[in-house]
Design a protein that fits this description.
Keywords: Cell outer membrane, Ion transport, Iron, Iron transport, Membrane, Receptor, Signal, TonB box, Transmembrane, Transmembrane beta strand, Transport. This protein is mostly beta strands and 796 residues long. It contains six helices and 45 strands. It has a 22-stranded antiparallel β-barrel. 53% of the residues are buried.
Length: 796
């Protein structure tokens, strides 16, 4: 399968304006219960209903013949989870690759690579999957999880019901809907203090539910605001606690239910987020951009690269991240007796202003470009400004049957239209790490290379402006061969159309005429076959074969790379995988033990990978095949009435099964992956344990919870050595393992809740990711040090 592009044509097209944004947040808290919800009086397990199968009524998590993890509202509140990034510590098989707030990629079962996202994300019925150019798998929307009913994590390819990008799985965020009978509200506050920070964290959020017309019309309002103190100092430009984050948001829902058979739910969510700096840290013993090389050496104010250290950033520019998002949706359901018809429409608009330090590239791959073509005496310190705007309009219509027989079906169709604008401006930075001024496309060569780096700012700019459309029809058919045996088959057909324009925007001597215009389309399909056996109410066994797919796309750097003598292919193709899985869901020990097991074998072809052209320009290409073998378990044990243990682990062996094609740079060295190399940033072993103890203290219902999370080590790149000459790969690093303990204690009486928490109890150095390239010198992405705080919540 591949996207077919006709011959390249050139045309001029005006650019849209970029947009900047702001921030906010909140967080809530109440009683705590482990993930599979426990019945408090009997010690037996309660059924948890999920809607992952899109059937007309919810299906028990235990009866569903596939791997699904569910985090309910009690678990989210008890553990203080308000972001998807924090969920990985409770969901086996879910991994997060994060470069800071708003710039995270979600990975399920080791399906990790550059390019389009491999995990689909839904907010109720609205798709909000991250997809921006230059590694579209990242930049997932950092929506705050406030007033949430549950989160479902579907593991393995979900191509038939959820379409492209769900090749690793799906994350579904289900909000609380308006209560049509009761006026109610809640306010939660949190105050916290993080080690190594001179500021404090705060979080305030509230919910108000108003029945406007009893049993017919209801309104539910949610608002939140939070501020997270920074803990990383940029010693290069003298900024303390640089990586602070602020977030603000509101959500409004209106539910209209005039009868028992029809309902209409409309929702609008708006959020702003602002981060002062990325959370990168230059390790001790390493230097910032250019190593010990003097930037602007010979000028009046030479500056050397600062040495690294614990919680020390050494970038020459401020790497702020500002964004705002708007999500509007409407969902209607009509029960026709023999099933339910659902129509869901949504509009998602996300605007980002991203900044990145460009100084490392200036002093390495682009050094000759600056000292030669641009006429600088020495390479300057500079900052990249990246305005990004993405708008997605989606529509889905489906029918889920409720027949009085062994046959059931889900059929439907979907349409999605997406518009993207990506701009990239490289601008000289002053000593404070800020752009000298706005980008000046018309700056001539004689001015740009005037011999005083840092005074004239225009270096170069580029853009990509495009549209995508997706059309799909899908269906699943389930047949009960017997009361205990069910067979399900699914198929999805879809078509993708892409139209994109890209080019350079200046200075004028680099613009190179009009834009490069690319058009393409692709038609393909995915399938699923599942057999589920339920010999009794306590045991469910299943076997499944399913395929997943994600589309190809274009490389935004294809036109610009030629400036530095490099070549970037204008397009890359789709990749696909096939998953073979067996699993069991068991109630044991008189239903005091819930145990879910799964084993899977995944074959992955034409993997989308990121590589670097001469000149330091990143691009995506297809390369090689991989195999993923895995084992997974999660569950909960009700030890006694006051004591409950939850647990989970995932073992993943993800490696290439053939050599990737050589991509040789100008130095004749290739670090492409070889047969047997592990897929980068995929730990082999991940585990979590949670211990919950319920007690009464002075008339207050109290709960103490201890959580432990372990993530094994992994590699930052495929190969540790050059495939041709055997030279060491300077960008190959070990991402060390993580061990983290969290403590949460809550007290509840009447409508009041008090809480104490300690995150990262032992104050470990939590290295959550690593970067290393000409463009990004070796740095760790750091998680938060120990944070201690108080919570207060009230219901009314």
């Amino acid at each position: 399968m591949m996207i077919k592009f006709p011959a390249q044509t050139y045309s001029s097209k005006p650019l849209k304006a970029g947009v900047v944004t702001k921030c906010t947040l909140a967080f809530s808290m109440a009683l705590l219960v482990p993930a599979p919800i426990m019945a408090q009086e009997s010690g037996a397990l309660e059924e948890v209903l999920v809607t992952a199968s899109k059937r007309s009524s919810g299906v028990s998590q235990h009866d569903l013949g596939s791997a699904v993890s569910v985090l309910g509202a009690d678990t989210l509140n008890a553990t203080g989870i308000v972001d998807i990034d924090a969920m990985a510590s409770l969901v086996p098989g879910l991994n997060i690759e994060s470069f800071g707030p708003g710039d995270s990629e979600y990975i399920i079962r080791g399906i990790n690579s550059a390019g389009e996202s491999t995990v689909s994300v839904y907010f109720d019925e609205s798709p909000i999957t991250g997809r921006f150019v230059e590694d579209g798998g990242g930049k997932n929307a950092p929506l705050k999880l406030v007033d949430i009913d549950r989160i479902e994590v579907l593991k393995g390819p979900q191509g038939t019901l959820f379409g492209a990008n769900s090749m690793g799985g799906v994350i579904r965020i289900i909000t609380n809907k308006p209560n049509l009978e009761t006026f109610e509200g809640r306010v939660d506050t949190e105050l916290g203090f993080t080690a190594r920070s001179s500021d404090q964290n705060y979080d305030v959020n509230g919910m108000l539910n108003i029945p406007l017309v009893e049993n017919t019309l209801g309104l539910r309002l949610v608002a939140y605001s939070d501020s997270t103190a920074g803990f990383i100092d940029n010693n290069q430009i003298g900024v303390r606690d640089a990586n602070d984050v602020e977030r603000n948001g509101v959500r409004t829902q209106v539910l209209f239910q005039p009868s028992d058979v029809f309902s209409l739910n409309a929702s609008v969510t708006y959020q702003e987020l602002e981060s002062g700096h990325n959370p990168r840290v230059t390790p001790a013993g390493f230097f910032g951009p250019g190593g010990a090389f003097f930037i602007n050496e010979g000028s009046e104010n030479p500056r050397s690269a600062a040495p690294g250290g614990k919680f020390t950033n050494t970038e020459f520019s401020r790497t702020a991240w500002d964004e705002e998002l708007l999500l509007a949706s409407i969902t209607g359901e009509y029960d026709i007796g023999k099933g339910v018809i659902t129509a869901a429409a949504s509009y998602f608009d996300r605007e980002i202003q991203r900044h990145q330090d460009s100084t490392p590239l200036n002093t390495t791959s682009l050094r000759d470009f600056f000292t030669g073509l641009l006429g600088f005496d020495v390479p300057p310190a500079s900052v990249v400004q990246q305005p990004q705007d993405r708008e997605v309009a989606s529509l889905e219509l489906r029918y889920a049957s409720r027949f009085n027989g062994p046959l059931q079906t889900v059929v439907g169709g979907s349409f999605q239209h997406e518009e993207n604008l990506f701009e990239n401006f490289v601008i000289n930075a002053n000593s404070d790490g800020l752009p000298v001024e706005n980008f000046i496309p018309e700056a001539p060569t004689s001015v740009t290379g005037a011999g005083e780096p840092g005074e004239i700012n225009s270096i170069f700019g580029r853009f990509l402006d495009g549209e995508r459309e997706r059309v799909a029809v899908f269906g699943e058919l389930s047949y009960e061969v017997s009361p205990a045996l069910e067979v399900t088959g699914g198929l999805r057909w879809f078509r993708f159309d892409i139209q994109e324009n890209q080019g350079n925007t200046g200075p004028d001597f680099l613009a190179g005429g009009g834009a490069l215009e690319l058009d393409g389309d692709e038609t393909t399909s995915t399938y699923k076959l599942n057999v589920t056996w339920r010999p009794n109410d306590d045991y469910t066994y299943y076997a499944e074969v399913a395929t997943g797919f994600r589309p190809g796309g274009t490389n935004v750097a294809s036109g610009t790379a030629a400036i530095a003598g490099g070549f970037v292919p204008p397009t890359f193709e789709s990749d696909e995988l096939r998953n073979h899985e067996i699993g069991a869901k068991l109630y044991l020990l008189e239903r005091r033990l819930n145990l879910n097991l799964a084993a899977y074998w995944i074959e992955w072809d034409d993997i989308q990978v990121q590589t670097v052209a001469e000149g330091g320009f990143n691009f995506i290409d297809n390369a090689g095949k991989a195999r993923v073998l895995g084992l997974e378990a999660e569950g909960s044990l009700h030890i006694s009435d006051p004591l409950t243990l939850s647990f989970g682990f995932n073992y993943t062996n993800a490696e290439l099964t053939e050599d990737q094609p050589f991509v040789v740079g100008g130095d004749g060295i290739s670090f492409t992956g070889q047969d047997g190399d592990d897929i980068p940033k995929t730990p082999k072993f991940v585990a979590n344990l949670g211990l919950v103890y319920d007690f009464v203290l002075g008339g207050w219902d109290s709960t103490a919870r201890l959580d432990y999370f372990h993530k094994g080590d992994s590699n930052s790149d495929f190969s540790s050595r050059d495939a041709l000459l055997g030279l060491p790969n300077p960008d190959f690093h070990k991402l060390p393992s993580i061990d983290r303990f969290d403590v949460n204690i809550s007290f509840q009486k009447d409508n009041l809740t008090l809480g104490l928490f300690v995150r990262n109890l032992t104050d470990e150095d939590l290295i959550v990711d690593v970067v290393s390239s000409d463009q990004d010198p070796f740095a760790y992405i750091m998680g938060s040090p120990r944070t201690v705080g108080l919570r207060l919540g009230a219901e009314f």
